[in-house]
Amino acid sequence: MHRAVAEYATGRDRESELIRHYGHLIDRNARRIAARVGDMSLVDDLWSVGALGLVDAASRFDAAQEVRFETFVEHRIRGAMLDELRRMDHLPRRLRQRTDRLARARQKLEHRLGREPDAFELAESLGWEVEEIESLDSVARPPLRLEEIDEPAVPSAGDGPLDALERARQRERLAEAVAALPERLQIVLSLRLVEGLSLKEIAKILGVSAPRVCQLHNDAVRKVKAYLGL
């Protein structure tokens, strides 16, 4: 067999085995999300993008971050499904109303506090659970991914060379700011922004309380902004 064909076949077998072993995670999240938006006909489409998310997650997993593989891939699977829903703009009216209400509350608190409120402050203001705030946030706005720092800047159609250079410079500065953080804060940012873990999940990994994780996250963001002069 030609080497390229053999490598392709091996890769396909590996992907099939991965999907067979972790397919229950894809199925669980596809059904849960479809039920949440009130359209079970979406299950097949969500399953397909979830499978792609699983394969991508497996290729990106880094055991050095001390996060369980299953936890990591499930968040990637769910993230891929939510990205697909955003692309389709497939949010039911009630869910859209709640995300709009959350956005208004966030704006009011930010104006009053002089900074972006955290999930606990938003939950207290709205009388909701912290988990609902985080769940709505995951649907309403895609998470920031720190790995984008290492990706080359892609100019848009209207950009000139100076625009591309400025974006590349900003990305380099952000990478420097994150690298300057204490290791514990770097880990919190990575778990929160790259892997999309909730405050409670990060708290369990680090062995601290969820409010403490919130404090660490806010501290990290504050230090990054200070480094960048924002």
**Low-pLDDT segments, ≥5 res:** 1-10, 142-159
Query: Mind telling me the C-alpha Rg?
Result: 20 Å
Number of helices: 10
Estimate the strand proportion. under 5%
How far apart the termini lie comes to 58 Å
Task: Kindly give the count of domains.
Answer: 3
Query: Any idea what the CATH architecture of the largest domain is?
Result: Orthogonal Bundle
CATH class of the largest domain: Mainly Alpha
Q: What letter string, H or E per element, gives the SSE order?
A: HHHHHHHHHH
The CATH superfamily title of the largest domain: RNA polymerase sigma factor, region 2, helix turn helix motif
Report on the biggest sheet. Answer: none
Shape category = globular
Helix content: over 70%
Structural class: mainly alpha
* CATH fold title of the largest domain: Rna Polymerase Sigma Factor, Chain: A
What is the average per-residue confidence, as pLDDT, rounded to a whole number?
A: 75
Number of strands: 0
Polypeptide structure, described:
By secondary structure, this protein is mainly α. It has 3 domains: 1-90, RNA polymerase sigma factor, region 2, helix turn helix motif (Rna Polymerase Sigma Factor, Chain: A, Orthogonal Bundle); 92-142, Arc Repressor Mutant, subunit A (Orthogonal Bundle); 145-230, Up-down Bundle (Butyryl-CoA Dehydrogenase, subunit A, domain 3). The protein has helices at residues 3-37, 43-60, 69-88, 93-113, 119-126, 130-140, 161-179, 183-194, 199-206, 210-228. Helix 1 (3-37) packs across helix 2 (43-60), helix 5 packs across helix 6 and helix 7 crosses helix 10 (210-228). The longest helix is centred in the N-terminal third of the chain and has 35 residues, at 3-37.
